[in-house]
Fold this protein.
Amino acid sequence: ADRLQPGERCASTSNRNFEGRQGRGGRTHLMSPAMAAAAAIAGRLADAREFG
């Protein structure tokens, strides 16, 4: 399922975001594919420039 628990954060490359879209109290951070890949590799929100 594409739902966050309250307080959870996720990296998303979606072009749509509005309050509650992925779960009440969750935070969705819209970002480029490179930034989302960096977050997936790092296991946290990260800067793609760290991976050169």
About this structure: The helical segments are 33-42. The radius of gyration is 11 Å.
